[in-house]
């Protein structure tokens, strides 16, 4: 929408500049300013109506034609295409309204144009962008960067500050496009002079002469690159973090999980025994955990608990889990980081427990006793639980990394004190990949047994593939939006260059008459397009990176990366956009009739 808005503004402004004498004549014969504005707005409304109608029809046709391509790129089959007439109508109306609103700006500027200035065919200079360009834009830019740095280094304030400063930075870049574009064009012309000679300076000068027209085009290209970079940074960060979460949630390749809705879900041990009998399977069994409450919590450490508190016998207690674990099985696949004490299975069997470092924050120390009871029984006052001695403190259990407030003991203790003799999950790897299909068929056959109807199989690789497919689908949508915005920029730039070359046809005719070859004229026009698009691309890359990182910080992202490939692609695409946009107008100007052009002028 923003790109379309800028295109309409740019096109109508060019039309007004080409009709300045006509509009001045209307003013001189008595047309009032508001009537002139209404005339331009009505023209934009007609353009909007025609564009909305053609856009809706073309969108419907392209939806059916591109169905197979979309299916291949998105990775799924479409049952059919449903045309949302209500949404299409709203989009068409919105497009017409936006076009009308976009026509107000050039209409107002046309009404303010003095007739004498119009007859001189002069164009307002960059000095007209007084306050916003010269002062507000740089002040907002410096302030947003300063606040972000200060917040990151010192205050560590709320995350919304990053979103606010990122928006302020982006706004300052948009407002400062005239000055930034001017400086960027000068810089590009300067660094390309050793390679292209005086043509680089001449092309840069021509680009600056058409500054008012080129500002909107640079804004469209900037918008496209900002959308592309910000979206890519956001999706990449989410994808990387989601992949890490999946690998954390599934430490091994496969997991059989009980799906009971009870507080202590589990399935029969017979499934564990049958799994272990399958050749080529290496597994770890995780017995059902006790959904428990502490009964001897140190009241001085309650402030370290962020969850729900339970009042038991006049004291505050918290919910924790007591889980059985076979340390010997775990250490076959993962190393356990021991902070204090021991993780000997014999010590666990002798009424011992290992706690995580998070439980230590609640005041439990090595050698202390922790009293744990079953939640339902403690709430009803039916059980006082059992005391376990803390024999070790670990960082986390690698097969259950999400169990932050958990104590681990031997399976026999859960069976003896709490009558828990079921399995909550079985994690396993297939050690021989050649037997993978055979093994999976055996396990699927086991799960078809009605006794194991409450067991579901999770495949880590399938989870990762699903994630990658979802990210790919969203990136495809993002790419479509970027391509559409760039396409608008190409159309606008082509229109601008064509209009600029048409206005300077006498100048090119004189160059041809003085001996310039047609290919020199073509090269000059192409170079002008390249400078404009490259300037807009550089502004967009810088803005997109800064704004994208602010968005990640505002959303508390854990993963940051620098999109080298995307930046490189955008740096390559930027000048190509200018070449494509300027190609047809440059060929046209190189083939013009010299005598006819000079005679007409």
Walk me through this protein's architecture.
With 601 residues, this protein is an alpha+beta fold. It is built from 23 helices and twelve strands. The protein has helices at 2-18, 20-28, 33-65, 67-74, 85-112, 115-120, 131-155, 160-175, 177-196, 198-209, 211-249, 269-276, 327-333, 345-349, 357-360, 375-380, 411-418, 436-447, 460-503, 505-513, 518-554, 564-590, 594-600, and strands at residues 254-258, 281-287, 290-294, 309-312, 315-324, 338-341, 352-356, 369-374, 386-394, 406-409, 423-430, 455-459. A hairpin with a 2-residue loop joins β4 and β5.
Overall structural class, as computed from helix and strand content, comes to: alpha+beta
Strand order of the largest sheet: 3-5-10-7-9-8
Pick out the low-confidence regions.
Answer: 122-126
Q: Helical region count?
A: 23
Write down the overall mean pLDDT: 80
Q: Compute the separation of the termini in Å.
A: 39 Å
The level of helicity is 55-70%
Task: Describe the largest sheet.
Answer: 6 strands, mixed, barrel
Using only C-alpha atoms, the radius of gyration works out to 35 Å
Strand content is 5-15%
Mass-distribution shape: elongated
Kindly list the characteristics that best describe this protein.
12 strands, 601 residues, alpha+beta, 6-stranded mixed β-barrel
Please summarize what this structure is.
The protein has 601 residues and is of the alpha+beta class. The chain has helices at residues 2-18, 20-28, 33-65, 67-74, 85-112, 115-120, 131-155, 160-175, 177-196, 198-209, 211-249, 269-276, 327-333, 345-349, 357-360, 375-380, 411-418, 436-447, 460-503, 505-513, 518-554, 564-590, 594-600; strands spanning 254-258, 281-287, 290-294, 309-312, 315-324, 338-341, 352-356, 369-374, 386-394, 406-409, 423-430, 455-459. Helix content is 64%, strand content 12%.
